[in-house]
Amino acid sequence: MSSTFDVMVVGLGAAGSSALYHLSKTGKKVCGIDQFVPPHAQGSSHGQSRIIRQAYHEDPLYVPFIKRAYELWEEIEKESGKQLFLKTGGLMLGNSNAGVIKGAELSARTHDIPYTYLSNQEISTRFPAFKPDNDVVGVLEENAGILFPEDCIKTHLEVAALNGAEILKNVKVTTIHTHSDVVTVGTNQGKYLANKVIIATGPWISEFIPELNLPLTVERQVLYWFKTNEPSIRLDNLPIYIWEYAPGKMFYGFPDLGDGIKVAHHHAGEPTSPDTLNRNISPEEISSMKNVISTYFNLNVEFNYGTVCMYTNTPDERFIIDYHPQHKNMIIASPCSGHGFKFASVTGKLLSQLALDEKPELDISLFSISRFSK
């Protein structure tokens, strides 16, 4: 195998695998490297399912990115013959002043996304698994659904390899040194040279760029699956959902894909690091989530299993997609803060454009590193 490349991608999770895929289509000599065997369960891109939606309650500015992401997910589905997306519809729930409700409506109106506003009675009638209080309303988006994260990563990498990309698995990067015209990537199996490097290492990213002192925090995230025989949790009866049950506090979940309903809190985990992450789920945590289900669902459930992943958060929960401020041959990718996977198809495209010194097809100024120094 070669030791010199036009572009190297360090970290082959959601963003990195997509970047390698897009770069592999350009005719450039490219290589991806990961300390594990992707897709794996050590980082932030595992757990069977991820939500994808367009009526983006976080900010209408994300909608052009997610619309492009839908197009690119469809593109690789056609290219690979693999199903990576399943349309289920998506329901945002909360009182009429909840951020998920107002935000979803704002994005939908701003970008002409079809949606239906539901009363609590309409929610109960259409989706009998839910148990909404009288003040709960819903914003139903027809085109929302599920991405299969492990399959997405695997497919990006398989197609990249077919296109000629080299992939190094179980290879740990130890150093990255930038020079004026080349980047040296040191690993536990030797050194490699590249004209450009993309760093997309998720919760490990600060280890490679400590000089930037980025204000990133890593958060433990627990995912739960509960079994029940109720037909109301089946795919044809339950959409993906995000429920803001108190100001700024929410849980989200999925219909039954075979192992029961999957449910998780959003931004409720303790700070951690990838090397100290507690991967055990306590009986108290299971009991607490079971109480959430008994409060907000018409279901009797039993715990099936769970897994633990990580969020890598910025203070404003926006992504980082930018050149290193001092080294234009290093691109930093942290599309992150617990809502980045759905964008991976377009994030990888944007990263590939930066690596090739092309103008990004979308305005990525809101994801700049410079915002942290203001």
What labels describe this entry?
single chain; 374 residues; alpha+beta; FAD/NAD(P)-binding domain; D-Amino Acid Oxidase, Chain A, domain 2; 9-stranded mixed sheet; globular
Return the CATH architecture of the largest domain.
3-Layer(bba) Sandwich
* Helix and strand run: EHEEHEEHEHEEHEEEEEEEEEHEEEH
The coarse overall form would be globular
The CATH class of the largest domain: Alpha Beta
- Helix segment count? 7
Relevant CATH superfamily of the largest domain: FAD/NAD(P)-binding domain
The name of the CATH topology of the largest domain is: FAD/NAD(P)-binding domain
Mean pLDDT: 97
- Classify the beta-strand content into a percent band: 25-35%
Task: Compute the number of strand runs.
Answer: 20
Taking the alpha carbons of the first and last residues, their distance comes to: 44 Å
Question: Residue ranges: pLDDT <50 for 5 or more in a row?
Answer: none
**How many domains is the backbone divided into?**
2
Q: What summary fits the major beta sheet? A: 9 strands, mixed
Q: Which structural class should the secondary elements be placed in?
A: alpha+beta
